[in-house]
Amino acid sequence: MKKMTLKDFLLKSDKLVIAKLLELGKTQALDLKAKEIKKLTFSTISKNSIKKLIGE
């Protein structure tokens, strides 16, 4: 198992959650906003990074 820092683990976890939300948005009517997604994150990911991930 590869060791990683807590910071990296939290960032990867947040990106996974965002990816799952995007996937769910394909079948459900979701209005994804970076401001709202930021409230769900654990890492220090910025709203601008979230906007890039969700295409906002």
Q: What does this protein structure show overall?
A:
The chain is mainly α. The mean pLDDT is 91. 59% of the residues lie in helices and 0% in strands. The protein contains three helices and no strands.
> Which structural class fits the helix and strand makeup?
mainly alpha
Q: Main sheet?
A: none
Give the helix level as a range of percent.
Answer: 55-70%
Number of helices: 3
The SSE order reads: HHH
Give the mean pLDDT: 91
Strand segment tally: 0
Percent of sequence in beta strands: under 5%
Structural features:
mainly alpha, 3 helices
Blueprint (SSEs and pairs):
Blueprint: H1 6-25, H2 34-38, H3 47-54
Short description:
It contains 3 helices and no strands. By secondary structure, the protein is an all-alpha fold.
